[in-house]
Amino acid sequence: MVDGTRDSQVARDSASGLARAGSSPASTHEVDVGAGPADLLSAADPLTRLRGVGEKVASRLLDSLGVRNIAELLLCFPRRLREIRELEEPTDDALDLWVRLPLRVTGSRLAWLPGRRSLVTIAAESPAGAVVEVRFFNQPYLKKTYEVGLEYLAEGILEYARGKFCLKQPRLFPRATERSGALLLSYPEVSGMSEARFAGLIGQTLSRVDLADWAHEELPPALADGLPSFALALREMHAPASLESYRLARHRFALLEAMELFRRVDQVRRARLAQRGPQILVDGRLERRILAELPFELTGDQSAALQKIWRLMQGHAPMGLLLQGDVATGKTAVAWCSAMA
Question: At what angle do helices 331-340 and 284-292 cross, to 10 degrees?
Answer without folding.
Answer: 130
